[in-house]
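Final report, closing paragraph on structural work. Over the funding period we assembled a curated collection of sequence-structure pairs, and we close with a single example.
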Amino acid sequence: MTTQTAPPDMARARWWPGVVLALVLARLAMSWILLNDIPRLQEHDGWYFPHGGDNDLYFKMAQSLAAGQPIALPLGIGQPLVMAGLLKLTGASSFRDILPWLVIINGFVLGGLSVWVMAQLAYRLTHDRRLALAAAGLWAFSAYALWLVLGLHGEARQLRAVYVPRQLWMNGLTDPPALFMSLLGLLLVVQAKEMRPDGRRQTALFLIGGLTLGLAAVFRFQSTAILGMVFLALLWVRQWRGLLLCGLGLLIGFTPQFWYNAIANGHVLNMPYISGWLGFDKNGQAYFNYTLMHFSPQFLGDSLNMLTRGNWLVATGEAAVAVAAIYLFIRCWRQCGSFAALIMFGAPLASFGLHISTFVFTIDPIRFTLPALSIGIPAATWAASFVAAELRTKLHFPSSTRPLISRARK
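Its predicted structure, as stored:
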């Protein structure tokens, strides 16, 4: 009598959810022990970790919303709406009063769910469960990896105190919900693209995916760079229906910002980060003041000069990394298809490209690089697998050590 064994992918599918759940619990445990001073960080006070940001301005916006008298500020309305809800719910009067709730939402609820989203996104892009687990594991432990990397810096203690909690989303900033919504939106769009055309479920996923990406932009307007790459990928594969549905979802998801623009900023199109140099006055007349632009070639030049430190050796090394990334993108295009390659490599590039073109990048380069690094985790795991497979081939390893790369549908 012979016993039948399940195909490898089916067998992996059985234990795969359990491993993802373990990684979710590991990230939650890291957040919990960080609250209890493990590892010990400077200036940690209860639920508060030093992080900078515009939380004071967001809190003022939240107070004005809770009072029914919105004030005009060139910021996204997403986080102030959450804060206003907490102010109404708890009766709090200060930012520190609602900070525990924000940390629970960002660090524990969204932080835990983000591990599952990362695993699903990597699997949908690579069609390999081991690569998906590698991506989820890298994301779950990315704060500890950052802790080790920052140890090489001369000001390691100060940097760790700021960026390790930030990578675990243990703060009340807009970065966590914006990044979570971006990852979830990417997952929904990628999943919808794989489905049977014209199906009801595909319609819903495209629509909700666009809505989620719109909400990401409501929290952080810079998330529109990722949204733009999604639209480009859909356009490239001629997914016209998906493009239309995502666009409709985007408009629905961005409705809170349109509403705030209309009642506080004088015009529905006076967007945060843009209205200072391009917008409309109360009479509906358009204006343009290029001296107030947040994005410019000059800022890009300043950022590149800071990254290279004016050293040609550093610049050469960074150029080599860029060339390697282009090569890997081309190989990914051939292995996984154009759509997956544009999402895996294009989304982090779009995020980084937008931030590096702003004046704020030189002020806090680590913070404004972390979103691109986080979204680029599926690409990083695929690239590591590809390079390992190439090395095995060059060194003539046995065929039993097969590559992890699996061909996705184009």
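The first strand starts at residue 278 and ends at 280. The beta strands are 278-280, 286-288. We thank the funder for supporting this effort.
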